[in-house]
Design goal:
2 copies of one chain form a homodimer.
Chain A lengths: L4 H14 L2 H9 L5 E2 H8 L3 H13 L3 E6 L2 E6 L2 H18 L2
Antiparallel strand pairs in A: 1-3, 2-3
Helix pairs in contact in A: 2-3, 2-4
The first copy, chain A, binds a DNA duplex (30 and 30 nucleotides) through helix 4.
DNA sequence: TCTATACATGAACATATATTCATATATTAA
DNA sequence: TTAATATATGAATATATGTTCATGTATAGA
């Protein structure tokens, strides 16, 4: 695998977004089903403000897709590569833990 | 997918390591074949000191495996989940770019 | 032993980042 | 319109992080 900077830099930026535990938890929360901000706040246990800030970054990177319904905003993880990426990395971690 | 903190936190830490472009380039450099620190320095275009600092972090997370041969240290990316993770994420980025 | 080469490490620093607090905006109900 | 609810945003801040510079350690050769 040989990556030029036009691939490497956005790749690193995307990984960086997954590199914060709160933000990663938010992404995982809306991985399989659409969740409102309020639901995410409850599930993740972070403040509403913090969740919104993180959602903004995830939205900007198109890692989640927003949908408005009345006063509520629903968020869903954007495509299936994300869950594949997570699964691969979880496999890696579990292999390391087994040692 | 439902992750407890014992999985989520190491997962985020690992992603964080891939989240710096220099460090990611270092990992990619030794993804398919063992490379000496000097070779990585040349390929990545960062200082020797910086490369060693990053390699230390990658080693601590067992993302690379070191081997000494005389004065040289060879590094190799540790297992195949890493390249799968990279490929998945590259696919994600390329889909986004296509929009 | 002395020198040179390859790599590692500690301190220092500038910048980036996560979080909080206060406040703003949008939508619904009264 | 007014009040209430759901979410977003800007400023401020404490901490984390990437990078450099100087120096240390390990190995090989003379």
């Amino acid at each position: 695998m040989n990556l030029d900077n036009d691939t490497l830099i956005p790749l690193a930026e995307t990984f960086k977004l997954l590199g914060d535990p709160t933000r990663l938890a938010i992404l995982v929360a809306c991985l399989e089903e659409e969740k409102t901000v309020g639901q995410i706040v409850l599930q993740v246990g972070a403040s509403q403000s913090l969740v919104s800030h993180h959602l903004r970054l995830l939205r900007a990177a198109r890692l989640v897709k927003p949908r408005r319904d009345g006063r509520q905003m629903y968020y869903l993880a954007h495509d299936q590569h994300i869950s594949c990426t997570l699964k691969d990395m979880i496999d890696h971690i579990q292999e390391e833990e087994a040692l």
